[in-house]
Design a protein that fits this description.
Elements (H helix, E strand, L loop, with lengths): L2 E4 L10 H8 L7 H12 L5 H6 L5 H12 L3 H14 L4 H12 L3 E6 L3 H10 L2 H4 L2 E4 H4 L6 H11 L6 E5 L2 H9 L3 E4 L3 H10 L5
Parallel strand pairs: 1-2, 1-4, 2-3, 4-5
Helix pairs in contact: 1-2, 4-5
Length: 206
């Protein structure tokens, strides 16, 4: 039996900022290359204004104010992006299948997600997270986020299992490195099929 920990954005739920911004702001983001550049400004690799929002240190109105002030984009345009995030977080069928197969195989499942509290509430209301996972950590509720060590340590305490027994599936290399530095096992998530192959290689799935 293994203890498998799922990230959410980009793993269980769709999250690809360049294409997301191209859909929300087509007049400002005509292609994915432009989307990547705008995403870098908007989200600052989750270490600036949005990172504070992820950690529950500022609320939605404040993050909109700060992004607008920092970038010069009109406040109503920034609000449009924030309002569109819930719709972007579409459930990924391949990952759901992976979760169901892991549960059938007898493994214990948890989650560790950088997610502002309003979005955490949204996902809980819309999806059966309690059926899929024994426990989980949303950054917005604990005031810590990946890749900081504190959130990994908090997760170990909450999950009640040794760090070395936890296997994180996450789509950000920096989070993979941070998890391993905290004694976890980790696999970089590039898609459900590749994750399934990695879990099969570990003997966790047939």
């Amino acid at each position: 039996m293994a203890n498998v920990v799922f990230d959410f954005g980009g793993v269980l739920f769709r999250w690809h900022p360049p294409s997301f911004l191209a859909r929300v702001w087509p007049e400002r983001v005509p292609n994915l290359e432009a989307g990547a550049a705008v995403a870098a400004q908007f989200f600052e690799n989750y270490g600036g204004d949005w990172g504070a929002f992820d950690q529950g240190l500022i609320d939605e109105s404040t993050v909109v104010d700060r992004v607008s002030a920092r970038t010069g984009w009109p406040r109503e345009d920034v609000q449009q992006v924030v309002d569109s995030v819930p719709q972007e977080l579409q459930l990924q069928a391949g990952t759901v299948s992976l979760i169901e197969d892991l549960k059938r195989a007898g493994h214990r499942l948890f989650f560790l997600s950088n997610m502002p509290e309003p979005l955490a509430d949204h996902l809980e209301q819309l999806h059966p997270l309690n059926d899929w996972f024994e426990s989980g950590v949303f950054s917005g509720r604990v005031k810590h986020s990946k890749p900081r060590a504190a959130v990994f340590e908090l997760a170990v305490t909450r999950f009640g299992v040794p760090a070395e027994s936890l296997l994180l599936l996450d789509d950000h290399p920096v989070n993979i490195e941070a998890a391993r530095a905290c004694g976890w096992q980790a696999e970089l998530f590039t898609g459900a099929a590749a994750a399934r192959a990695a879990l099969q290689a570990r003997g966790l799935l047939l």
